[in-house]
Amino acid sequence: MDVKKSPPLTEKTAQAVDPPPPFDLAARKAEHPHRMTNEVQEPGERREGGSIPSDGGAAFTSFVPDALPVPILIAVPHAGREYPDNLTAAMRDPPFAKMRLEDRYVDRIGEAVAAATGAALLVAKAPRALLDLNRAPDDIDWSMVADGAGQRPANSASNRRARGGLGLVPRRVPGLGEVWKRRLTRADLEARIAGVHRPYHQEASAILERLRDRWGAALLIDLHSMPPLRRSGSPGEPVEFVLGDRFGASASGSLSAHALRFMAHAERRMAHNRPYSGGYVLERQAAPRRGIHGLQIEVCRSIYLDAQLDQPGPRLPAVARVLSGLVRSLAHEVAAFGDPGVLSYAAE
């Protein structure tokens, strides 16, 4: 997609980006008065689940509005900041490693978008350093497990990220090298999978099934953040957002096209599948033929954090407004998939 130069993202410009809905909302409300609303429904089901090993705190939080006003779940797997003391003590350089591994404060955007749109929300509290929820449970570098000698993943292709240092438990990050002072035990690894990975994905699946059963179709938006992208040899400014759909495998092409059109209309710079096409979360959760679609959205940290890319910045609310408009617009598209006669199209 062409990424032309666009004006700075401000609260003023964010207020004017929502295009007209793709179909007649008033008519759809008349057809489905019990399902379609513009207002966030309260109260809802708020819960904590999973368990962070050695800490005992919840691994994630979720919130599902009672009326399920839109067929969308926003999930944030990489912004967790609940570090057990023993995990921090095992890091060679905790402040640097945490900053490089976290999707820094992107959960604040997810929370704001969910509150503004009525989308369901799932946010990991366990940090990515403990376990990466966007990796398969067998994507393991067994050399970093003290008693893991002789262990191999069931499929050698499944641990391609682990061999690069970013498997189920991250081992290396650019600018630091090795993250850990010592290896973990197999019992510790199994406790992390049982306490964090498995319950998080079970929760995501359960929420998506509820949304699909209510609407006939559902959409997972897997929300991440990315460092500023350098565009070597390419004209124009770096992209602000990257949309991933696993090259068409995780969502109907019409949803991806709709998202790209929306962001172009909003004069935001969005790329498609490069360099981020989506990972294990979309592979595990998305099933377009069953009416469950999945899109990954990466947000450049420079547009919502401060100059040090450390703390939330003044433009975070404007970014949340743009993404809220996108979520509302996509909700209309997904709702149309659930209408009689449209499900076959939704499964493309």
Write the layout of secondary structure elements.
Blueprint lengths: L10 H4 L10 H7 L12 E6 L10 E6 L6 E5 L8 H5 L4 H8 L4 H12 L2 E5 L35 H4 L8 E2 L3 E2 L7 H30 L2 E9 L14 E4 L8 H13 L4 E3 L7 H6 L6 E9 L15 H22 L5 H4 L2
Parallel strand pairs: 3-4, 3-7, 7-10, 8-9
Antiparallel strand pairs: 1-2, 2-4, 5-6, 8-10
Can you put this structure into words, describing what you see?
The protein has 348 residues and is α/β, with parallel strands linked by helices. It has eleven helices and ten strands. Strands 1-2-4-3-7-10-8-9 form an eight-stranded mixed beta sheet, with helices on both faces. Strands 5-6 form a two-stranded antiparallel sheet. α8 packs antiparallel against α10.
DSSP strand (E) fraction?
A: 5-15%
Shape: globular
Mean pLDDT: 85
Secondary structure category: alpha/beta
- Helix tally equals 11
Q: Please compute the radius of gyration using only Cα atoms.
A: 20 Å
Helix-residue proportion: 25-40%
**Sheet with most strands: strand arrangement:** 1-2-4-3-7-10-8-9
Distance between the termini: 22 Å
Q: Spell out the helices and strands N to C.
A: HHEEEHHHEHEEHEEHEHEHH
Short description:
The protein has helices spanning 11-14, 25-31, 85-89, 94-101, 106-117, 160-163, 186-215, 253-265, 280-285, 316-337, 343-346; strands at 44-49, 60-65, 72-76, 120-124, 172-173, 177-178, 218-226, 241-244, 270-272, 292-300. The protein is α/β, with parallel strands linked by helices and 348 residues long.
